[in-house]
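Obj.: predict assembly geometry.
Materials: sequence records (below).
Method: joint structure prediction, all chains together.
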Amino acid sequence: MEIHRVVRDLVTTKRNFWLAAKPLRVVEDYKGDLSVAVDPIGCKPGDFVITITISAARIAAGNPMITTDMTIGGIIDHWSEEEWRS
Amino acid sequence: MEIHRVVRDLVTTKRNFWLAAKPLRVVEDYKGDLSVAVDPIGCKPGDFVITITISAARIAAGNPMITTDMTIGGIIDHWSEEEWRS
Amino acid sequence: MEIHRVVRDLVTTKRNFWLAAKPLRVVEDYKGDLSVAVDPIGCKPGDFVITITISAARIAAGNPMITTDMTIGGIIDHWSEEEWRS
Amino acid sequence: MEIHRVVRDLVTTKRNFWLAAKPLRVVEDYKGDLSVAVDPIGCKPGDFVITITISAARIAAGNPMITTDMTIGGIIDHWSEEEWRS
Amino acid sequence: MEIHRVVRDLVTTKRNFWLAAKPLRVVEDYKGDLSVAVDPIGCKPGDFVITITISAARIAAGNPMITTDMTIGGIIDHWSEEEWRS
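Observations (raw structure tokens):
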């Protein structure tokens, strides 16, 4: 898993049927590179989260039919920008 | 998922049987690196899209026999080059 | 598999049900980049370990329902920072 | 999928039983980094091809028992070094 | 598949049950970055090999229960450091 920070929501009106079942969040890594993750937990911008990739991402989304390759797996309790970038 | 921009179509006369079932698009990331994705949605050059990789790409293509490792999952409603590169 | 060093534990009170079954460790590679791995073995900070990714990570976690993409597979007997970075 | 150029054949007398069923090609990306792909299509050096990775690579090889993580999926009809590197 | 060179053996007394069934080798790529691969073939340090990743790695290890994400798939017959780094 990787450590990401939630940046914002992502709206895709025209999208894959199964992806439509869950909210999508734009997340960034410590270098500022952006990815898009399914959020089955309910995160808000600024939260530090662990993101799950590979086939585990589909299981973590709550339904293996959800066609995601990245899913938020948890909100980290104690994390700061300093720890992240060291 | 990653955020890509559709660049152009890709024609491969001699190709894998199952790949032939769907249009292919050349997409670029924010650094200009190119990849090739199956497009089950119907995108046009210039669209910002989310791309799905790993085993989820086959499911998103509409048939797990389609031998793709990257499939376009949705067209992003509001996105600009500025957000992408920040 | 990759060679990582265990940095610390990671606490995520609000997390995916299945991930909750196993301890999580922050690990670093030789460049200092951080990842998060499930630890079914019992490592302590400073241990050099091999980490398993992809679908094998779920099997290595002891239950394929555990939604991990990285699991610690073993503690390396003889390894030093010098070998790692050469 | 990624865009690669076929460089040469690869001979591995001592190899995995299932890999032995198909020709192997060394391919390069636009930066010159080399990989090895199974070729079920019949490519020759200099061809620009799309390469399929992940579990789709095994299916594209014609038999999921073929232990490949990269398979050539098609020969690109119109491609030049200029398009590749832009 | 990628082209790696075998560097040395790796000993992990305390490790995942299934990984214990096969020898592990430290391998390096052309940049000197290290990884760890299961070796079902019997390689020695200095051999140039092709390495298989993703789910194919488990199949190539001879038993899909072996929790590896990288397995040596064959020894390359003719390869030199010059070809590798060009």
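Conclusions so far: The two ends of chain E are 17 Å apart (CA to CA).
To do: check interface contacts against the pulldown list.
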